[in-house]
Amino acid sequence: MTEDTLVVVYPSLFAENKIKQLIENIEKILKIKKLKFTKITRDDFLICIKADDPVFVSSAIALLFGIKKIAIAKKIKSNFKTIVSEVGEISSNLLLKGEKFYVKADGNPKGFVIKDLELASTSTLIQKNQKISAKPGTESKHDKLLQIYVTKTNAYVCIFVDEGLGGTVNNSQSQKSICCVTDEFSAVNCLETIKQGFETKLVICYETREDVIHLVKIVDKILPRMLKSEVELEFHKISKFGKKSEDLLSKNSLITNILIKSAKEKQISHISLATSPLIFPSTYVETLQKRIFSTGIIPHISLSGIDSEIMKNAKEIGMEKYVPKIEKFLKSNLTKSKSKLKNNEKTVKKIIKVKLGPNNVHTILDSLEIEH
Fold first, then answer.
1. Final residue in a domain of this structure, among 140, 166, 192
2. Are residues 133 and 218 located together in one domain of the fold?
3. What CATH number is associated with residue 10?
4. How many CB atoms are closer than 10 A to CB 363?
5. How is residue 63 annotated by DSSP?
6. pLDDT in tens, the chain (372 residues)
7. How many angstroms separate the CA atoms of 135 and 108, rounded?
8. Distance of alpha carbon 233 from the chain centroid
């Protein structure tokens, strides 16, 4: 990579007023991953990172929330002709035979219009790539996206662009929330709680040995997004519940009691409930909320509205194989079900601390003394 090749971060809409904290989080994740960088600067709406290895640095930063897009780009002067010429040069190394390309420019140029830049760049690409039959596509149908970011003084022609996880900046709420992972749906709830800016403590509730192995594999997908080098995990072995709707509500009710107790012990202000009024009976959700409120803790429903973006994020963090189970759960009919929780339900608790690394699953299961 040349000296003028940088990692460029385009903050999400919800991070635009938290740029300072996003930069601090970028520095923190690079320190956790032990990746070297020379400097981090702002250029208008962009955050630019100069690093020895842009590929690894961009991969590490992609773990963070509050980012719309992350790119490896070449920095040049914000001059119309210079940008068009550079797009033509870079494209010759990126485009393959017969590919359809699409030029997308964003930013605040001085002295020219973004649309003119897109048209001129597209025209140049057509001329330069006639021999390989590369042709312009559309925004919805293309093989290669050629992204350009333009500020008042500089332009960034992207060599590689990846979608960010969106949401707001990690830990920007300055509040802690506790949430439970007991299945795929609750894991998405934890992910969404982090995405909404809460510092999150994880509690894992399981019924059998097979359950805990499965859940630890899911938790391993969440841990790198928590912006920590070491995490404390709280495990609870609970009694076995059936598959009926009533059993699911009873299990959730038990888990709520576990979260209340843990939140009190750790002095955590919020509890993130893995429920949604779109799936669960509203009276049931209200009952859980009132129970939490009565203890002086604030209930938070991260999944009050469920959309395709949540499923997209689940896939982005490597949970794509769990999506069919999540979608099946979303179709559950729980509206007429009632909870049947016994007051004397007991659990077996174990707390472990884990230094995050490449073998988190094995480390966690070994700490739990579970064969795997």
1. 166
2. no
3. 3.30.2130.30
4. 17
5. T
6. 455 899 999 999 999 999 999 999 999 999 999 999 999 999 999 999 999 899 999 999 999 999 999 999 999 999 999 999 999 999 878 999 999 999 999 999 999 999 999 999 999 999 999 889 999 999 999 999 999 999 999 999 999 999 999 999 999 999 999 999 998 889 989 999 999 999 999 999 999 999 999 999 999 999 999 999 999 999 999 998 887 878 888 899 999 999 999 999 999 999 999 988 777 888 888 999 999 999 999 999 998 766 666 667 667 666 666 667 666 666 665 655 565 655 557 789 999 999 999 899 999 999 998 876
7. 27
8. 20
User: What is the spatial distance between Cα 63 and Cα 40, in angstroms, rounded to a whole number?
Assistant: 17
Number of domains in the chain: 2
Q: Map residue 55 onto helix, strand or coil.
A: helix
- Map 263-328 to HEC letters: HHHHCCCEEECCCCCCCCCHHHHHHHHHHHHCCCCEEECCCCCCCHHHHHHHHHCCCHHHHHHHHH
Strand partners, 46: 43
DSSP string, 199-235: EEEEEEEESSHHHHHHHHHHHHHHGGGG--SEEEEEE
Rg, Å, the chain Cα set: 24
Q: Print the domain residue range for 203.
A: 176-367
Give the domain-ending residue among 107, 131, 166: 166
Are 363 and 272 in a shared domain? yes
Long-range contacts of 305-311 (CB under 8 A, 24+ apart): 305/276, 305/278, 306/276, 306/278, 306/279, 306/330, 309/166, 310/188, 310/192
pLDDT score of 350: 95
What is d(CA 140, CA 13) in angstroms, rounded to the nearest whole number? 22
Q: What's the whole-model pTM score?
A: 0.89
- 264: CATH: 3.40.50.620
The reply to whether 159 and 254 lie within a common domain is: no
358 with 221, same domain: the answer is yes
Closest CA to 103 of 80, 81, 125, 85: 125
Please check whether residue 109 lies inside any domain of the structure. yes
